[in-house]
Amino acid sequence: MAEPLSISVVIPTYQRCASVRRTLEALARQTIAATEYEVIVPIDGSDDGTKEMIESFQAPYRLRAAWQTNQGRASARNAGIRMTTGSLVVFLDDDMEPVPGFLLAHLDAHPPGSRRAVVGPVPIPDDSASPPIVHYRRRSTNALLDRLARPGYQLGFRDVYTGNLSLSRDLLDEVGGFDESFALYGHEDYELALRLARAGVELVFSPQPVAYQAYDKDFAALARDCLARGHTAVLFARKHPDVTAGLKLTTYSEGSRRGRFARALLLWLSRWVPRTPEWVISAMGWLERRRPRRIDDYYTLALDYFFWLGAGSALREPPGPDHGRASLLGAALRHAGETDGAHDVLRMRVGRCLLVLFALVSSVRPLGRAFHDLANASRPDEITRYDARFLEIRKVLPPHAHVAYLTDPTPREPAGGDDTPRLAFERYVLTQYALLPTIVLPDISAALAVGNFHSASGTDSTATGGLTLIRDFGNGVMLFRAAAE
After folding, report:
1. Which helix (H) or strand (E) holds 13?
2. Are 74 and 188 in contact (CB under 8 A)?
3. In whole angstroms, what is the distance from residue 280 CA to residue 388 CA?
4. CATH superfamily of 7-216
5. Alpha carbon distance 430, 374 (integer Å)
6. Burial of 92 (0-12, 13-18, 19+ CB in 10 A)
7. pLDDT attached to residue 244
8. Is the separation of the CB atoms in 108 and 208 below 8 Å?
9. Would you give the DSSP letter of residue 268?
10. Which of 131, 356, 425, 436 measures 20 to 30 Å from 282, CA to CA?
11. Contact predicate 407/452, CB 8 Å
12. At 37, is the secondary structure helix, strand, or coil?
């Protein structure tokens, strides 16, 4: 039988072979003797070569792996715990790269006789070449770490994450390990931390055991995580209703009026159009390529929508063991963000149209009518034509500037009755889309105004009265300045 060790490192993984290899290589560079620790990798159903990679990995420490069918992170961690021989268990996520003094710092954070669960920092390295989603995650992670490191700050169960956590094997046995009913991503760490705190375990943040997070998820993967977190938040609340006051589930009515309205509209649409999550992901992909200055706001709004989408799915299901796993991971939601060639173009077009919704939220116009008319305005030829029409003016408008909108008194297309205002609004919505991230508002006083005319010259339009032409971009596109300016 193997001799007991000081530390057992548990790294649950699913379909991330390259990330696990980086973590194992970093653990080979630890400052404590390799004979003092072991590494256990519970493989949660991976078929990407992780098992074969570990079998051939030349580690200076004792390395073991265990494969199981995909059952979730809580189950995988428990499987790893059962294999440990160390007195101290250190949990790492499979995308972490611990510094050389990582294990020694965790060991030092547990003085003899203490009952502690120690959380270590998980910073995301700064790299200007990283995608915008990585910069967004870095900023939110840094804000969390700054709060945890604040002098005198007392950690609560909602501050604990298992990407970099250590506690004794005895404490894990005492509280019963992870709750395996959390089969989806999220909240299994909160649930364990809550039981630890109720058992009198001290929750501590230590700045020394640093594990850098090699963040490589795209927006689609993060959106799926938020879907799952919404679902597991409901599961957590059902298990521990006495502590729900501090959960995100109680914050639905918080936030800006515009953000809440956009979220509610997207959630309503999701009930009727199951592919709405995919369209939102496509919209965010389009935004990421443009990189507007307010992209963090769009990330926050979109991820908030996915969280509540998952929570709503869970709330509509009866309580029960492992409830919701099949439904959440099934149908369109399971494949959110994945592509099938026949629908790629449609997803992109509808996704772009959703961006118009975000822009319209900045105004006080009736969004219900806007969305209805937007659906009628999504013909591929018109969207492409308007994007090209405003290409040059988009280059000179300040990002996020507010500009007024001018057009012909009546549309050129033959129309009668109620069709005339519909077509006029359609042209306005398409202008909103083409000029993002500039905010285009109709019928307001603004320093600048954009003209969208059918004719090459708009000088005969009554809409231009009292304005000074700054530049004629041709094709009926003009930029004006208010006379007062």
Report:
1. none
2. yes
3. 23
4. Spore Coat Polysaccharide Biosynthesis Protein SpsA; Chain A (3.90.550.10)
5. 8
6. buried
7. 79
8. yes
9. H
10. 425
11. yes
12. strand
Contact 148, 159 (CB under 8 A): yes
Contacts of 145 (CB under 8 A, 6+ apart): 121, 122, 123
Q: What angle do CA 35, 37, 39 make, to 5 degrees?
A: 125
Neighbours of 366 (CB within 10 A): 10
Backbone angles phi, psi at 468, to 5 degrees: -110, 125
The conformation of residue 248, written as its DSSP 8-state character, comes to: G
Backbone angles phi, psi at 39, to 5 degrees: -125, 130
Contact 98, 91 (CB under 8 A): no
* Residue 3 DSSP label: P
Task: Report the alpha-carbon distance of residue 204 to residue 44 in Å, rounded.
Answer: 29
Question: What is the pLDDT tens value at each position of the chain, 485 positions in all?
Answer: 345 579 999 999 999 999 999 999 999 999 999 999 999 999 999 989 999 999 999 999 999 999 999 999 999 999 999 999 999 999 999 999 999 999 999 999 999 989 999 999 999 998 888 899 999 999 999 999 999 999 999 999 999 999 999 999 999 999 999 999 999 999 999 999 999 999 999 999 999 999 999 998 999 999 999 999 999 999 999 899 888 777 888 888 888 888 888 888 888 888 888 889 999 999 999 999 988 888 999 999 999 999 999 998 888 776 654 443 333 333 333 333 333 333 444 444 555 555 555 554 444 344 444 444 444 444 445 667 777 888 888 888 877 778 888 887 765 555 455 566 667 777 887 887 788 778 888 766 678 888 888 776 655 566 777 788 888 888 889 888 876 54
Sheet holding 467-474, edge to edge: 439-442, 402-407, 448-452, 477-482, 467-474
What residue segments make up the domains of the chain, in order of their start?
A: 7-216, 218-361, 379-485
Backbone conformation region of residue 204, classed left if phi is above 0, alpha if psi is from -120 to 50, else beta: beta
What is the rounded distance in angstroms from the CA atom of residue 440 to the CA atom of residue 359? Answer: 8
SS3 for 389-439 is HCHHHHHHCCCCCEEEEEECCCCCCCCCCCHHHHHHHHHHHHHHHHHCCCE
Burial of 277 (0-12, 13-18, 19+ CB in 10 A): buried
Q: 3-class DSSP state for residue 480? A: strand
Residue 119 three-state SS: strand
Whole-number pLDDT of residue 303: 95
Per the structure block, which two tokens stand in for 86? 């160390």
What is the rounded CA–CA span in Å between residue 308 and residue 281?
A: 15
